[in-house]
Amino acid sequence: MTSRLRNRGAERKKTRILGTVKYFNQTVEGRVTDLSPTGLALDLGGRVFHADDGSPVKVESNEFGILEGTVKWRRSGRLGVQFNINSNANAQVASYFRFFHKDVPSRLAR
Fold first, then answer.
1. Which has fewest Cβ within 10 Å: 35, 83, 85, 102?
2. Where does residue 76 fall: left (phi above 0), alpha (psi -120 to 50 degrees), or beta otherwise?
3. What are residue 96's phi and psi, to 5 degrees?
4. Could you tell me if 91 and 85 are in contact, meaning their C-beta atoms sit under 8 angstroms apart?
5. What 8-state DSSP symbol labels residue 100?
6. How far, in whole angstroms, is CA 1 from its chain's centroid?
7. What is the pTM of this model?
8. Mind listing the pLDDT tens digit for each residue in 61-84?
9. Which helix (H) or strand (E) element contains residue 16?
10. What are residue 69's DSSP bridge partners?
11. Using CA atoms in the order 81, 86, 87, 91, what is the torsion angle rounded to 10 degrees?
12. What is the pLDDT of residues 9-61, one digit of tens each?
């Protein structure tokens, strides 16, 4: 049995970035939970977002600006976005990691 999930080529970093995802006239706020040079995962906090896999979206935050991409997956109130490959997206993500990123523990200590 083959898994539908493939290993990602780019290393992901845990984040806690507030942002919005836009698809046509929909705008939904969420939290970017991980980020890599090729994509991100966004926790929508139970909000409804109607965009099918392959739909073009824009993700915006104060930390990295506006990134364009496509929906790769949706499950359990989360959304995976693969960035459109261009030098602008690479530069924006690299700048975020250089100037803003602080490592986030995967679990909070009790």
1. 102
2. left
3. -60, -50
4. no
5. T
6. 28
7. 0.74
8. 998 889 999 999 999 899 999 998
9. strand 13-23
10. 57, 83
11. -10
12. 667 788 889 999 999 999 999 999 998 888 999 999 999 999 999 999 999 99
Report the chain's C-alpha Rg in angstroms.
14
The DSSP element (H or E) to which 99 belongs, if any, is helix 87-99
H helix or E strand, kind and range, residue 13: strand 13-23
pLDDT of residue 24: 95
Rounded mean pLDDT, 100-105 = 60
Give dist(CA 31, CA 104) in Å, integer: 13
